[in-house]
């Protein structure tokens, strides 16, 4: 799937955004459904959407599918993983939680947090 489209750019010398009137680029795009005919066997995983997917395709100006919503989704997922072992001292205060992939991928290896009460204002660096 491809289509011609007008792609804006920035003239760094003049610090001016240029928006062309005519198409000057090609958008190349494939969806999962486009590639299925190329395979003899296809497997599908059914997963919890919030744990596995957060689209990132816009800038923060759009307020959806943007870096801020992706960061929030990852933080909420990591919070759920951590809460299987620990608790927060002030659960009503929402904080960003980021677990290093060197520590855990899907919650394994978090036993060192068993029964720990985490102060929301403290950064734990591992």
From TrEMBL:
One of its GO terms (molecular function) is UDP-N-acetylglucosamine diphosphorylase activity. One of its GO terms (biological process) is UDP-N-acetylglucosamine biosynthetic process. It comes from the Eukaryota. InterPro entries: Nucleotide-diphossugar_trans, UDP-sugar_pyrophosphorylase. Belongs to the UDPGP type 1 family. This is UDP-N-acetylhexosamine pyrophosphorylase-like protein 1 (Trinotate prediction). It comes from Henneguya salminicola.
């Amino acid at each position: 799937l491809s289509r011609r489209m007008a792609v804006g750019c920035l003239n760094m010398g003049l610090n001016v955004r240029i928006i062309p009137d005519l198409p000057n680029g090609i958008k190349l795009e494939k969806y999962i459904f486009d590639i299925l005919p190329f395979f003899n066997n296809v497997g599908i995983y059914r997963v919890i959407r919030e744990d596995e997917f957060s689209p990132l395709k816009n800038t923060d100006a759009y307020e959806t599918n943007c870096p801020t919503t992706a960061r929030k989704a990852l933080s909420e997922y990591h919070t759920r993983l951590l809460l299987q072992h620990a608790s927060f001292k002030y659960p009503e205060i929402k904080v960003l939680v980021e677990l290093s992939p060197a520590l855990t991928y899907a919650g394994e290896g978090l036993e060192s947090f068993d029964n720990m009460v985490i102060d929301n204002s403290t950064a734990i660096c591992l």
